[in-house]
Amino acid sequence: MDDLPQTPPASEPPPASRPLTYEEAPVINPEGTEEVLLTQEEQPVLPPEPPPPAVPPPVRRRPSFFGFIGNILLFAVLFGVGMWFSTVIRPYLPGASPVPAPATTTPAVTQGPPAPTAPPDPYAGWQTYQVISGPTRQPVAGISFKLPPDVLSPICDGTNCASQGTYLPGGTRFTVAARGAGQALRDYRGAIVTDVLGQPFITRDTLIAEKSGVAFTGTFTGTTIGGYAFSRMAGAMIPVTDTVSVEINHFTPSGVTADFETDASLFEKILASVVVTGASGGEKGAVMPVEPLR
Questions:
Q1: So what's the pLDDT on residue 18?
Q2: 283 SS3 class
Q3: Which one of 182, 210, 218, 270 is least enclosed by Cβ atoms within 10 Å?
Q4: What CATH code would you report for 127-276?
């Protein structure tokens, strides 16, 4: 191999015959690699960019009247819906006070003078009774009276039922009896009011159910028509017709402790409840002796 002939290097042209070239300094890119710039003759020629299209200016429209009205209506509707919605949910919010109900108004009514109010009935709940005739066992027509609900109904005293009786709350005995024509007892008019043994009572004229009657009282020990012994009695004789009258009394039975004064007030109220619808109630026969009550 060493014996091969050496080829002589080619001869280089002379410097005057080399073409002129432009060299640029290399540029180091960010990654550190060497970038060779093209020479002016090697750079490509780019075509010119076309101009951007012309954009017409925006056209301003004049506001429409109906559009303005529509905006107002839309605002009003949204405002109303918001107010309604707030009133609906407001009571359910914590700490919210209840919404008062709207006040209602009623038309004014012209009223006349107030009507007089009826006084309360003092006999409300009381029971109405009639006096029973002994011979017929039928009510005596033309007279009635009332008793309070806590007083039992009167029953006959004895088999002939000349009188009927019951007890008042204070313990006194209350009796009623028909007198006169067709009755077991005689009429009081023309005679002196006494017990069954003839002991007289103190009497005075009185007005009962718009009838002129006689009130009597006695504090002696006596006997009633029904056979009851008493220590104190008070009562009244009431005319019903010209020939018929009714006796009403209450007394303390002998040997019985009773509140006579309390029952006396109730007895006066019972007398005030008497209703007489008979004919005449005038005096008949001799005038009875009358003395003031003590």
A1: 53
A2: coil
A3: 210
A4: 3.40.1000.10
